[in-house]
Design a protein that fits this description.
heterodimer; A: Rossmann fold; six-stranded mixed sheet; 24% strand; globular; B: mainly alpha; two-stranded antiparallel sheet
Amino acid sequence: MTPLLEVIDLTKHFGGLAANSRVSFCVERGQLTGLIGPNGAGKTTLFNCITGAHAPTSGRVVFEGRDIAGLPAHQVARLGLARTFQVYAAVGDLTALEYVMVGAFARHSGRGAARTAAQALLERFNLGRFAATLLAELPVPAQKLVTMAAAVATAPKLLLLDEVAAGLNPGESAQMMEVIRHVHQDMGITVILIEHILELVMKLCQQVLVLDYGQLIAQGPPEAIAAHPEVIRAYLGASYVGPTAAGGQV
Amino acid sequence: MEALRAAFDFSDFPRSDKIVAGLLAVAFLLFPLVPTSSFAMSTMIQFLMFSIYGMGWNTIGGYGGQVDLGKAQYVGIGAYTTMVMLLRWDTPFWVSMPVGLLLSVAWSFCIGYPLFKLKGHYFAIATIATSLVLKDIFEVWPLVGAAKGLTLPTNRFKSPDFVHLVFREDEYYYYILLGFFFVGILVINWFRSSRLGFQLRAIKDSEEVARSLGINVHLAKIKTYALATAFVSVAGSFHAVYVKNIEPEDTMSLSISILIALMAMLGGAGSLWGPIIGAGVLIPMKSYLKEWLGASAGIAGVDLILYAGLIMFISAWEPRGIWGIVEKIRRRRRL
């Protein structure tokens, strides 16, 4: 069976800067993949290239056997590839329910059906009490959950989450992880998440990708990644790569 | 069918709104029965007409956040289509109005396609430019009477003529326009809860996020722009048979475009009642100022000073206009 997503030699240049260079990896159906790397490693750019926000300079993005590289973002979304954004400040006048309905309208043309679907999702995400509140007036963790619910409302096969736990306290991020687990396991959506809190990635993910300076320096199961010399070099510096860690196999 | 139900569904408004709206609707219906001056009558007609322009503007400018300062070009297309067809072929209003609407919408697609590649101020400036260029063309085009404009001879049709919409008494115009006004409210009420309406509100929030939720941002804007255009064009056609004398200067000038946008913003962009409230405040103010100050009002630029003041008020104090203040107070009371 073909993988759900296959990224082949993906390269993205901004002027002279190579934000991604020759990145290749696969994501299987049902997998939960973590994407980590120091700041500026090109993680968000990679998401942007996969979802059509940027057209890659070269390389292919194969989703369900179809090359989607360079396709406009809204068409990618309709194929079943949804995402959330790292930086997002609600300014509009949409309530939480209406915001999720925007996502639901991608699958339902009638407003009754969209409303029902959105309401059900809010309940699932434990946000029912916020339905009538303006998104801009919600606390940050709830805002992040609502934007995630809107992405899930488009009924994606693959969901890309860009630092959904950034800025949350440990309690809130644990709650967020619970929701991600629910989306992944109970709703059967394949997930790739960018996350800085490595502990969460290691606990949650079945596969971890590590980017550094635009290049994929390691990929594999969490245990192997934790011991990988390149990863330690990227995060801690070369002097921490000890003789014991150097033996880590991927 | 669901669209029709949505158009009549006002259930998300508090009861006080529905009572006020209902009372106002009755008052509007009864207004001509109360003896009033012809001046009050023409002010009411102006108010209804600008409400319809404003409702149209509000779809793309209010819900969608795309500030459009070129609505006057569609007033012109609607008005001139009706007038030209009426003078040349005695075409009934009920035929020329839809023809004008189709021409306006076709034109809106032609300029909407390139214009919506622009954003923010650039879009606003481009809409001004297209509107002024069209006005300049009309000013030298013999078919539409060039700068002199077109005039409907008073004895051409016998009043009351419901086919060509030619009346001597303003009451007839008033009731027909009131009909358009009510239909307009229903259409906007449908729009704001339709898929397209939601898409536009998401676009106003963030285009990047809207795209990620599967919305074709460019297409959604073009579609909504066409809807906005339809409103303006219909009222423009009405304007032609109502004033019976149209010139590029008074149908397509920049000040009309600005007045349309300003009214909707003053009342509350992105709300159902906003444009109506805005027209209700600005139009009587404008008419009575002109009445009191006579011709000197135009020379002194009193109305322009007034607009400038309102723009400052809106941008500095309450970007969501009068309706925004009402909503703010309500929310505070609920908390």
